Amino acid sequence: MKYLTIKYKGDVAILTLNRPEKRNAISDAFVEELNDAITIIEENAKAAVINANGPHFCSGLDLAEHAKKTPLEGVYGSRRWHQVFDRIHRGKLAWFSALHGAVVGGGLELASSTHVRVADETAFFALPEGKRGIFVGGGASVRSARLMGVARMTDMMLTGRSVDAATAEAWNLVQYVTKKGEALEKAIELATQTATNSEFSNYAIIHALPRIQDMSSDDGLFVESMVASFAATTPEAEARLNEFLQKKSGTKVTKPNSE
């Protein structure tokens, strides 16, 4: 692969953006390679982590390539980003992202397609499309806006505002903040824990929860009941529940930061 690398740690795939000389800017070829990588990873892992080489996670769209497109080519390109990023957001696996440096434009859109985001203290976030005379096209108007809210995203796009990792955590753009250089280790730790879950439970969590948010309360509660019933009747769920009841399982809930 030209733009990406894949390696594994147990059941966790580690996908690395590997275009540091371009701040890991996303081109059409990059998107197609990402699509191929997702296929490989889904066949060989139970959870996945996205991270990046170089001082920045991703500076976003490759503007040099974008400037040469016709309006219709731009639409096709945007829709392809949607298709490929949706394979992360609504695919087979839980995806985690380890973020550092610039998480800007398309980089934030890629991060927003993952299910859990871990940023180190060097990370900063921006959507500068408005200042560049363009508009988001990789899913931010749906995914990023739902994470932080439309008002905050509007502010970022209109003013060019960037926010640090602590603010991003407060805004729900990321769920964890680590010291410099520790985001990948934390993301792998979380992915490793997730890979031990029931495959059905993981799939239900990443697919049912976001869909339920789009439903009325009554419809959402009905779907919750259906998914809960199916989840509880899988052979793996029955085995795990019996282990817990017989005190053979190590899944007891403990206080945060307790030994």
Report on the architecture of this protein.
The chain is an alpha/beta fold and 259 residues long. It has 2 domains: 4-195, 2-enoyl-CoA Hydratase, Chain A, domain 1 (Alpha-Beta Complex); 199-245, Lyase 2-enoyl-coa Hydratase, Chain  A, domain 2. Helices cover 48% and strands 16% of the residues. It contains 11 helices and 9 strands. It has helices at 28-44, 63-66, 71-89, 106-113, 143-148, 150-159, 165-170, 183-195, 199-213, 217-232, 235-245, and strands at residues 4-9, 12-17, 47-52, 94-99, 102-104, 116-120, 124-126, 162-164, 176-178. The strands form 2 sheets. It has a 6-stranded mixed sheet with strand order 1-2-3-4-6-9, sandwiched between helices. Strands 5-7-8 form a 3-stranded mixed sheet. Strand 1 (4-9) and strand 2 form a beta hairpin. Helix 1 (28-44) runs parallel beside helix 3, helix 3 (71-89) runs parallel beside helix 4 and helix 9 (199-213) packs antiparallel against helix 10. The longest helix has 19 residues, at 71-89.
Features:
alpha/beta, globular, 2-enoyl-CoA Hydratase, Chain A, domain 1, 48% helix, 6-stranded mixed beta sheet, Lyase 2-enoyl-coa Hydratase, Chain  A, domain 2, 9 strands, 259 residues
